[in-house]
Amino acid sequence: MKNEILSHMKDPGDLEKLYQKNKVQFKREFNGIYPELKGNHAADFWYERLNFRKDIPKKRSNTELLFVVLAALLAGVTAKLPAIFSIDDEFFYSRNVGFIIFPVLMVYFAWKNKISSLKSGFIALSTLVGLIYINALPAVPESDTLFLACTHLLLFLWILFGFTYVQEWNNNTGKRLQFLKYNGDLVVLAALICIAGGLMTAITIGLFSLIGFSIEEWYFQNIVVFGLAAVPVVGTYLTQTNPQLVGKVSPVIARIFSPLVLVMLVIYLVAMLFSGNDPYRDREFLIIFNALLIGVMALVFFSIAGTSAESKRSSEIWILFLLSIMTIIVNSIGLSAILFRISEWGMTPNRAAVLGANGLILLNLLLVTAQLFRVITKKTDMEAVGKAIALYLPVYFLWAIVVTFIFPLIFGIN
């Protein structure tokens, strides 16, 4: 092969065919004769190509690993507070589940990104205000306003956490999209960790039962609680130190599921016409319908965020465009249903929250769909689509503030 390489040095096409025929032998023979060819542009190019090595990942910091272990333990202890201090489980978890997860992640990224003391103070103060406020609200189990405040507090904390990840919100759409991609990667990795943890739990309980020990209650109250609380922290650490671990998995999952969800959505909407159920009079159906909307919207946004900086095939862009249109249709049905219910039965905290959320989501989807259409017509690129998502995130933050902190003042807790 050595002579063939030398004879084809001036013909890139033949040299490529020779390489593809037997890559291992080609590399060995080429490296053997390269000293004779050094200085030749074609030879130098092939040498760099054959001997390119990706950067070796930096050695993990023991300090960071210790930090993650302590953060995971802290999250676990926080999750165990009801058992430690005899606090009612429903009261604690309904209001404070976000404080088990997000504060430790905020501290992790604030430390990792070396955020200034001023920004760290703002994030800490905002989190503390949320903690005091939500736990000070009256305990009325059937209150819709309380339920809305608790659920939207999660969105409030999530975007505060995003601030520690992005560091700057002004004109930093790239980092915002990275934050969305990180969330998608974390969901994938957390699911894998939970599956592995579930298998370990089943094996452990099964093995102990074979020797006459029933450890289910103790295991779930201690090991499982600590394990679940630690999953976001451990998953985050793995995504940051091993980005290649799930960096290629999430886009593939989105690429596979986007067309499947598109087909499912079309079939579902057609089937809905013949089912006899509709979101206009069936409250439970409307709730499921809006959950479907949020799930599909999240798939669209995470898919775009994960690949906005890369070239996408025309077919993938078309699928995202059609999926966005279908999501707009679903949103419009949900929005018209809630307007119908308001006109028939008046305004309630739930209807006000759904109306506001659907309206904001619809506007966001219209902006994204318009940019996707411009990509299809070659008037812009995928970066513009990413900006349409990233620039809208502060709007959701403001809405979370309104529902969490202002709705209880308007509607009361009853």
Gross morphology: globular
Overall SS class:
mainly alpha
Summed over residues and divided by their number, the pLDDT gives a mean of 87
Low-confidence stretches: none
Number of folding domains?
Answer: 3
Strand percent estimate: under 5%
Distance between the termini: 84 Å
Helix content bin: over 70%
Evaluate the radius of gyration: 27 Å
* Major β-sheet annotation: none
Number of helices: 18
Number of strands: 0
**Secondary-structure element order, N to C:** HHHHHHHHHHHHHHHHHH
Keywords: Membrane, Transmembrane, Transmembrane helix
Transmembrane segments: 65-85, 91-110, 122-140, 146-166, 186-213, 219-240, 252-274, 286-305, 317-340, 352-377, 389-411
Organism: Salinimicrobium marinum
Protein name: DUF4153 domain-containing protein
Could you characterize the architecture of this molecule?
The structure is a single chain. With 414 residues, the chain is mainly α. The chain has 3 domains: 49 residues, no CATH class; 178 residues, no CATH class; 161 residues, no CATH class. It is built from 18 helices and no strands. The protein starts with a helix and ends with a helix. Keywords: Membrane, Transmembrane, Transmembrane helix.
